[in-house]
Design goal:
By secondary structure, this protein is of the alpha+beta class. It has a single domain, classed as Single Sheet (Rubrerythrin, domain 2), CATH 2.20.28. About 35% of the residues lie in helices and about 25% in strands. The longest helix is centred in the last third of the chain and has 12 residues. The structure holds zinc ion.
């Protein structure tokens, strides 16, 4: 089963965010992911989620939203 979502963790600020796995695959090799919170390139793929429902249960998802609210 192909996972729809991939959880990416930033090694600089320790926050996590979610991207579509197919977008990751479609991303050109000369591009790179950066953390949406601190713009760091030091991000790692931690795990993939099979459904949005499962994904939303992750505390990482809630943390992403909590952080977004703090951004002005
Ligand atoms: Zn970061």
């Amino acid at each position: 089963m192909v996972s729809i979502y991939t959880v990416i963790k930033c090694k600089t600020c320790d926050l996590e965010f979610v991207v579509l796995s197919e977008n990751l695959k479609a991303m050109p090799d000369n591009r790179y992911l950066v953390c949406p919170f601190c713009n760091s390139k030091r991000v790692i793929v931690t795990k993939a989620n099979d459904s949005l429902k499962e994904c939303m249960k992750e505390s990482a998802y809630r943390r992403v939203h909590g952080s977004l609210k703090q951004v002005k």
